[in-house]
Amino acid sequence: MTDTFETVADFTLGSRVEDFPDSTLRAAALMLLDTLGITIGAGPMQAGRIARDSAAALYGAGEQGFGARMLFDGRRVSVAGAAYAAATQTDNLDGHDGYNPTKGHIGVVVVPALAALAETIGDFSGPEALAAVTIGYEVAGRAGISLHDTVSDYHTSGAWNALGVVAMAARLRGLSADQMRQAMGIAEYHGPRSQMMREIANPTMLHDGSGWGALVGVSSAVLAEKGFTGAPAITIEAEEAAPHWRDLGTFWQMEHQYVKPYPICRWAHAAIDATRALIRDNDLTHQGIAAIQVNTFRESACLFQGMPDDTSKAQYSLPFAVATMAAHGRIGVEHITGAGLSDPLVASIVERISVAEVARHSDRFPKCRCADVSITLNDGRVLASGDVHARGGPEAPMSQDEVVNKFMEFASPSLGASRAAAIRNAVLGLQASGSKFSDLGALIYDAAGRT
């Protein structure tokens, strides 16, 4: 067992709730709330329905103690199946949080794993729930950075966020350090090493691979708990990975996640924000716009062009997102689904948008997701935004009230305002010393329906 793994094991299995800063636990509660909002908002969408039905068909729980109800569905499947269904559902509404250095997403598996694992053990405190969330973020984030730093191609989040799920399962289910080590090795070996840019080039329900990351992470923990062995996880135990783990427990990645204001790929957000600011600050309407030029980084410029014909393409389309903002002043679920996909006004604006890669933006990726936008008006004037960093991260954070309002916007249509508000209050109350996870659990498994 390497020194680095011992550090990870001590942090995961030995940390007390008191060891986590209050600010970190507050951030964990906000990310939990934000992710739940996206899970709820994604519930009626086709990908979420398919994922839940497939989990019920394929991943039944055959042994006592390894079953879990699916989030906002109520059907009981295996604990791995429940995590898979919720993570896949969440992943297919691209409004969940992320972390710039990983070029990917963590909460999308952490929240489904927490809910699924909680069904297999006795009740536990609210602060312990937030500690488990934090551990998932801290371990997954460093595994992601380590993977990106040691391989040549760009893998989806499922390739590394599975290790954060293992850490959560090890803590909540009381695995030993050796069992956790075996589970980490299994999860890394079987994690979906899918190529992200293939999905960008042809957007589908695969999204960021996080459904499989959740499935692999939970399955690996159960396998190790029963005695299965795995080769050491090189993203943790390889010598070249060691520097990425040295600040574990001192630098809290949990406090540096970004929250998405829009359910669109993060790579498009800087251009959306630049367009939003130009329109707002100059009192423009779409009628006055002759052309929009977007200058952005390479990965962003690779996003889907033109009008999308399904919601997956809509969430990965930069011109469509910019046009929607110009047309409607906001981007909601209604714009990336159903009739929103054939909105004639948006289509007319898409035709006026050009996208180009600019070296200075590419050179700063992934730490800076920057873009600049120029809008040419019908009278010939040109308005330039200058370089804009996407909102929602540490550089331009959303306030707690903004995050809470976002949750209510996404959760209320499916659940009704009363149940959504109760979930909001329960999540924000988890940091209180007398709170229990069951305060939240009582509200999140039953099928959606207005109350």
UniProtKB/TrEMBL annotation:
In terms of superkingdom, the source organism counts as Bacteria
Q: Which residues form the signal peptide?
A: none
Q: Which InterPro entries match?
A: MmgE/PrpD_sf, MmgE/PrpD_sf_1, MmgE/PrpD_sf_2, MmgE_PrpD, MmgE_PrpD_C, MmgE_PrpD_N
Name assigned to this protein: MmgE/PrpD family protein
State the family named in the UniProt similarity comment for this chain. Belongs to the PrpD family.
Q: Where is the MmgE/PrpD N-terminal domain?
A: 7-235
Annotated MmgE/PrpD C-terminal domain ranges read 262-429
In terms of Gene3D superfamilies, this protein maps to:
2-methylcitrate dehydratase PrpD (1.10.4100.10)
